[in-house]
User: Fold this.
Amino acid sequence: MGMKAISMIFSARRPLDTRELGHTLAVQSGDFTLDKGAFRELEITLSVTAGLVDTVQTQNSREHPHPYIRFVHSTLQQYLESNHEHLIRNSERGLAGVCPA
Assistant:
């Protein structure tokens, strides 16, 4: 689950909030229904990523009440961009597989 979370955060075209990441982790590729039992607590998701991701609350919590999830340091994003072929295979295809059509 940790690598899937890192892969989804890396592949997203915009920052994901914690709710969106929870949805992408709960859905398996090819599923057509959302299994509410597959949702994990945010603390579990943060712990399985070995401290590489964290949350940040926006200034406007009324407009966007859920914190965003991000890498703890920009060098991780840079490292993944340089080495993603070897580290995160098919990450964009995986993200597309859990997005509704």
The chain has one domain: 2-98. The helical segments are 2-11, 18-26, 42-48, 74-87, 91-98. The first helix runs from residue 2 to 11.
